[in-house]
Amino acid sequence: MTHPHHHDRPADAPVLRVTDMKKAYGAIQAVGGVSFEVRPGEIFGVIGPNGAGKTTLFNSMLGQITPDSGRIELNGEDVTALGPLELNRKGVGRTFQTLQVFGKMTVRDNLIVAAQEHQGSLWGRMFAPGDSGLGERADALIDQFHIRHVAHKKAGELSYGQQKLVDIAMAFMSEPDLVLLDEPCAGVNPSLVGGISTLLKELNRSRRGSFVVIEHNMDFVMDLCHRIMVMVEGQVLAIGTPDEIRGNKQVLDAYLGN
Question: Which stretch of DSSP H or E encloses residue 24?
Answer without folding.
Answer: strand 16-25
